[in-house]
Amino acid sequence: MGNARPGPAHERLGALVGEWEGEEEFAATPWAPAGTARSRHSFRSGVGGLAVIHDYAQVRDGEPFDGHGFFTADPGTGEVVWFFFDGVGFPPDVPLRGDWDADGVLRLAKTTPRGQARHAFRFDGDTFEHEIDVRLGDAETFSPFARGRFRRV
């Protein structure tokens, strides 16, 4: 059995590849108070072009926090999937799923027993914005959780 070959969905994920640094603002959650962080995203191509491997690191109030994941395309649906595990410690029981919208924004979402999360990645040349909105517990609406702006380094 030979390896699968990357398709257009995999190639589009190439927009992420690179080293990115920036600032993030966070709302208060059950896990941490509101605050700001200096963060770095490192994205590299892997698995013969079928995945983008993601390393994330931040420093907030002098405390480090990190995460690791990968993006790929679901061969059955063509959707982008993102498996991510971070220092909060919850296992990635389901990936975030989504796609690029008509404006070129990568939108991903997932539901877990703790709530729902929606992510948006907006790229503009050597910058990108990452927004996270959450709906925790019995909340009826989504609320901003994180807003970050990053520059390619």
Number of strands: 10
What coarse outline follows from CA principal-axis ratios?
A: globular
Largest sheet: 10 strands, antiparallel, barrel
Q: Give me the CATH architecture, please.
A: Beta Barrel
Oligomer: single chain
State the strand order across the main sheet.
Answer: 1-2-3-4-5-6-7-8-9-10
Global mean pLDDT:
93
Radius of gyration: 15 Å
The low-confidence runs, each spanning 5 or more residues with pLDDT under 50, are none
CATH class: Mainly Beta
* Number of domains as seen in the coordinates: 1
Helix and strand composition category: mainly beta
Helix content: under 10%
Query: Which series of helices and strands comes N to C?
Result: HEEEEEEEEEE
Ends: how far apart? 39 Å
Pfam families: DUF1579 (PF07617)
Protein name: DUF1579 domain-containing protein
Task: Describe the protein.
This protein has about 150 residues and is mainly beta. It has a single domain (about 10-150), classed as Lipocalin (Beta Barrel), CATH 2.40.128.20. It is built from one helix and ten strands. A ten-stranded antiparallel β-barrel has the order 1-2-3-4-5-6-7-8-9-10. Strand 8 (about 115-125) and strand 9 (about 125-135) form a beta hairpin. It is globular, with a radius of gyration of 15 Å. It starts with 7 loop residues before the first helix and ends with a strand. The model has no long low-confidence stretch (mean pLDDT about 95).
Topology:
Layout: H1 8-12, E1 18-26, E2 35-46, E3 51-60, E4 63-73, E5 80-86, E6 96-100, E7 106-112, E8 115-124, E9 127-136, E10 143-152
Antiparallel strand pairs: 1-2, 1-10, 2-3, 3-4, 4-5, 5-6, 6-7, 7-8, 8-9, 9-10
Protein name: DUF1579 domain-containing protein
InterPro entries: DUF1579
